[in-house]
Amino acid sequence: MLKLANKVALVTGGSRGIGAAIAKRLATDGASVAITYAKDANAASAVVKAIEGSGGKALAIQADAADPKAINAAIEKTVATLGRLDVLVNNAGTAIPKPFEQTTLEEMDQMINLNFRGLMVATQAALKHMNDNGRLIMIGSCVGERMMTPGLVAYAATKGAVKMFTQGLAREVGSRGITVNNVQPGPIDTDLNPAAGDWAAPQKANTALNRFGTVDEVAALVSFVAGPESSYITGANLTVDGGTNA
After folding, report:
1. CB under 8 Å to 130, separation ≥6 — which residues?
2. In CATH, what number is assigned to the domain containing residue 17?
3. Is residue 47 part of a domain?
4. Minimal CA–CA distance to 92: which of 130, 28, 44, 37?
5. How many domains, the chain?
6. 2 lies in some domain
């Protein structure tokens, strides 16, 4: 039997990049998967079709992860449609690379609301439905723990907040067997942070492996944390960063 058989997972921001890879991997491992997307219905539909084409079950829900009402509704719809909730992956997030002095208040709010406040809202809503022994998984960043990349100051601050949120919440829900972990990617080749992009060279140089990672390498760690073999791992910050923080 597949390790996530009969489980239901929700992945926020699951229409592209790391989120899409996570959704597909969880489905491959047996879970029924709901994804949220903000705008690109075609991309979300492509993820659903890929999962269904491999024999899985998937659902796409339009919901801006920075909008509390939308994210609450998405969780309600997931439970209503798929019957339960076992795994929440708070993946939705964004970075706006620029020197901090040039960062506008609107840009600060955008990163805080999406990367941190939205994550807290989604987690709180999910806990009302989550089964005992469930999995809460945050997608943080290696810069939330060690910051070496100029231009990501505000972004790093939101990811540092995610780190401490994870550690604190793990203490509160452990009695239910629910684990809370923070997967912290380093430089990963996505359309948001391409390996050939303007900001790539210093990130690559900071790794021990001298390369960007792939979305599938992040998804593999998330799938492990979502599964039964990780049941004694909680409150952990797990980097998948090519040695960036080594």
Report:
1. 85, 86, 88, 136, 178
2. 3.40.50.720
3. yes
4. 37
5. 1
6. no
Instruction: Please give the structure tokens belonging to residue 104.
Output: 């506008």
Which one of the listed residues 23, 88, 145, 155 is annotated catalytic? 155
Cα torsion angle, 112, 118, 121, 126, sign? negative
**pTM attached to this predicted model:** 0.97
State the number of CA atoms in the 13 A half-sphere of 179 facing the CB: 20
Read off the pLDDT of residues 39-50 as tens digits, 9 standing for 90 and up.
999 999 999 999
Are the CB atoms for 88 and 33 separated by under 8 Å? Answer: no
Residues spanned by the domain of 114: 8-240
Reply yes or no on whether 155 is catalytic.
Answer: yes
Tell me how far apart the alpha carbons of residues 228 and 230 are, in angstroms, rounded to a whole number.
Answer: 5
The b/e string for 188-202 (b: 16+ C-beta within 10 A; e otherwise) is bbbeebeeebeeeee
Name the residue with tokens 């009302």: 128
